[in-house]
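Could you help me review a protein record that somebody else here produced? This is what I was given.
***
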Amino acid sequence: MESQRYKRGWEKLKEIDGEAGEQVIQSLADISPDLGKFIVAYAFGDIYTRETLDLKTKEIAVVAILTAMGTAQPQLKVHINGALNTGSTISEVKEVILQMSVYSGFPSTINGMNTLKEVLEERQHHGIQDEIGTPPSETDKADRLTRGTKALSALDSLQVERLKNAYANFSPELVQFTLEYGYGDIFSRDNLSKKNRQIATISALTAMGTAKPQLKFHIQAALNIGITTEEIKEIMLFMTIYAGFPAAINGTNALKEVITERAGIDN
């Protein structure tokens, strides 16, 4: 059975990451072959072969996680390759990285963009022509605040009111910039699906582990727009690979709380 897990994982690793993934495993052979074995058997044999989320969605989640964490640039390179290999366009990968500016700040986003640039140059050098994809549409004529209010309200009709009640008197600028930049400038862009925006956000916030209220809101928003409980559970299982089991447990507990709270509201 162990050999079957490894074989299944090795095939999945090659499908997603190609030579980049194989090089990672080979680089561990002389120092920790056991680590290489566990990466293949567990990460790719047990987790990546699960079918609740497709491979494109999984790799979008990983790019978000590793960009937000900012501590694993070599692995981010591997998974940017993986995202492009599994159907994401250049525009979509750029957008996932750009969105992380809202959650992990501009330095992590700059580093992520530079990593993407390196990957694209290497792929072009090897004759790989990636699909550029669709750029975001021109923004509508509404001002940024109005646009942001609309984008946030599409996730939860009451969240703008909650935001204002919490901070309008204490830090009105925080309300303004959250709506104008986070939602007016970023979330209103249409070159990444709403589903993948929420999956990227949930993945990043779970991995960072420092913003439970915001994680719960985005879990709530994900459910509001049609992402299923099973899909969010799968994100948390996926987290065991990239942020560890504590992050996965904390994220799963946040999901449980949201489901319980929604059930109470429904009753």
About this structure: DSSP finds 13 helices and no strands in the chain. The chain has a mean pLDDT of 95.
